[in-house]
Amino acid sequence: MNLGISFFITNIVLGVGLAMDAFSVSLANGLNESKMKTCRMCLVAGVFAVFQFIMPLIGWVCVSAVANLFEVFRKFIPWIALILLSYIGGKMLYEGIKNKENEDEKPAVSFKALLVQGVATSIDALSVGFTISNYKFVEATFACLLIGIVTFIICFGGLHIGKKAGTKLAGKASILGGMILIFIGFEILISSFL
Q1: For 22-77, what is each residue's pLDDT tens digit?
Q2: Which helix or strand (DSSP H or E) is residue 32 part of?
Q3: More exposed terminus of the chain, fewer Cβ within 10 Å: N or C?
Q4: Given this model, what pLDDT does residue 153 score?
Q5: Mind giving me the DSSP string for 169-182?
Q6: CA nearest neighbour of 122 among 67, 41, 58
Q7: Nearest Cα to 72, choosing from 140, 126, 13, 121?
Q8: CA–CA dist 36, 105 (Å, integer)
Q9: Which of 106, 126, 133 is nearest to 40 (CA)?
Q10: Percent of the chain residues past pLDDT 90, beyond the cut
Q11: Do the Cβ atoms of 151 and 15 come closer than 8 Å?
Q12: Residue 66 burial (C-beta neighbours within 10 Å; 0-12, 13-18, 19+)
């Protein structure tokens, strides 16, 4: 097992890069739910972290076992992310416009929607399986664990920043959060063509 300094640096930097979409969605969730409690913030960040841990590991398994099938699926990843994020963002926009005056204290994003966000922001991490394909299983698992930990920290920070900004934006937070999610979906799609 080769777990030197370069292994840690490489996978932490990889984790930061992969977590940027999840950070943006966390920011939007924090904007949308400015009274989010710490345990809920841990749950939200944890869901993103788990998906960012699992997806590269699934990609590693696919590269190791069924590389040809994965290559066919790879071109659809940006479209899937766009559809999922646009659906959730559109729903947030609709609810923000519809309920401008209504300020409920219930969680803005249901657990089911949170899972969809987790998939949408981590689906591109499947391709990391190619990056870590030379790792043995234990190394790949540890690399994915580092990615998950980095994602948790970054998403928790995004939620905190979003909450602070959300209290200042009050009723417009849901609209802004929805627009951010839709923008992220298009950004993922456009960057796949570049």
Answers
A1: 888 888 888 888 888 999 999 999 999 999 999 999 988 887 776 556 566 667 76
A2: helix 5-32
A3: C
A4: 96
A5: HGGGHHHHHHHHHH
A6: 58
A7: 126
A8: 9
A9: 106
A10: 23
A11: yes
A12: exposed
Tokens of 193: 């063509």
Write down the mean pLDDT value for the chain: 80
Rounded CA-CA distance 7/77 in Å is 27
Angle between helix 77-98 and 173-193 (nearest 10): 160
Query: What's the rounded Cα separation, in Å, for the pair 73 and 184?
Result: 21
User: Please, are residues 139 and 57 in contact by the beta-carbon 8 Å criterion?
Assistant: no
Mean predicted confidence (pLDDT) in 76-101: 72
* CA–CA–CA angle 88, 163, 15 (5° rounding): 70
Per-residue model confidence (pLDDT) at position 75 = 74
Phi, psi of 89 (to 5 degrees): -60, -40
Torsion sign (Cα): 145, 23, 189, 98: positive
Separation of CA 189 from chain center? 15
Place of tokens 């940006």: 78
pLDDT at 67: 58
Q: Which two tokens stand for residue 32?
A: 């949308």
